[in-house]
Specification:
- It is built from 6 helices and 10 strands; from the N terminus they run αααβββααβββββββα.
- It has 275 residues and is of the alpha+beta class.
- It has a domain of 185 residues.
- It has a 10-stranded antiparallel sheet with strand order 3-2-1-10-9-8-7-6-5-4, sandwiched between helices.
- A hairpin with a 4-residue loop joins strand 1 and strand 2.
- The longest helix is centred in the N-terminal third of the chain and has 21 residues.
């Protein structure tokens, strides 16, 4: 396992740990060029062990950083509901069953209305029927069920999670603080993960881990990595990589790219489709 990690170090795939390094851009291109590290929460978790355990001469820096990290965490907790999504957004989903060599994809506009299930306007859907029905449709259904749960039951708060400061990291040229979050209960929708918070805005830039409770007995484990692209102090795009270890069909992979949109763009899509 450690030889695998050092292979990533030699190939330069973890450059985001160094301030000023070039970060891979977030966007739809990742749907076709997903890094293997994004499919496993293990690598960032193990790397943070070395970050969280400073050597001689670094202990003072870690202690001094904690008050600033604590303030950023409190800002995130207070504002996370408003930063969790957009009322209207474009959604692109690419899914695959590598073992069966089956793929499928969806492009849609999702409208979120308070106290209602999200409404999807499908712009394009193609690919294998099994992937569309068993992966894409099930993901959308799970997303809809999540909206029925109280937001307070899913929020990253001390009531729902044990939260431990793990050290500082860098995303491109921006410093961030890393936290280990452990669910207090094995409850639906909670994630055992490592969370990175931007030091300036308090927004989450990366969350990588696995679901605390599997949604189905047919699944062994659900790994998830979500990255947010920040622009002018707000989240401009969200890319989520999901790796589902199924008991029957082998691994299932999904890449979801979400971006805010407007009614004007929605009308433009409708006009282009001749509606």
């Amino acid at each position: 396992m450690f030889a695998w990690i050092w292979q990533y170090v030699r190939e330069g795939r973890i450059g985001w740990l160094i301030c000023g390094s070039r970060r891979e851009s977030t966007g739809a291109t990742r749907m076709h060029q997903a890094s293997p590290s994004l499919h496993s929460p293990l690598l960032p978790a193990l790397l943070l062990v070395s970050v969280a355990a400073p050597g001689f001469g670094a202990e003072r820096a870690a202690v001094d950083a904690w008050p600033a990290a604590s303030a950023v965490l409190q800002r995130f907790i207070a504002n996370q509901e408003g930063a969790s999504g957009w009322p209207l957004e474009t959604v692109e989903i690419e899914a695959s069953l590598p073992k069966l060599k089956k793929t499928g994809w969806l492009r849609a506009i999702r409208r979120v209305v308070p106290a209602e299930k999200p409404h999807y306007e499908v712009l394009e859907i193609a690919g294998d029927r099994t992937v569309k029905n068993q992966l894409i449709a099930r993901y959308i259904s799970a997303n809809e069920r999540a909206t029925e749960l109280p937001a307070s039951s899913l929020a990253i708060t001390p009531e729902n999670y044990e939260i431990h400061y793990a050290g500082s990291v860098c995303v491109g040229d921006r410093p961030a603080y890393a936290f280990r979050i452990i669910p207090r209960k094995r409850r639906e929708g909670l994630i055992n993960a490592v969370l990175w918070l931007d030091s300036e805005t308090g927004l989450a830039v990366r969350e990588s881990g696995y679901l605390a409770k599997n949604p189905s007995v047919f699944l062994k484990r659900v790994n998830l990595t979500r990255e947010n692209e920040l622009h002018n102090g707000t989240i401009a795009a969200r890319v989520t990589h999901i790796l589902v270890e199924t008991r029957l069909a082998g691994p299932a992979q999904l890449v979801i790219v979400e971006r805010p949109t407007s009614d004007e763009l929605t009308a433009g899509h409708a006009a282009a489709e001749g509606k």
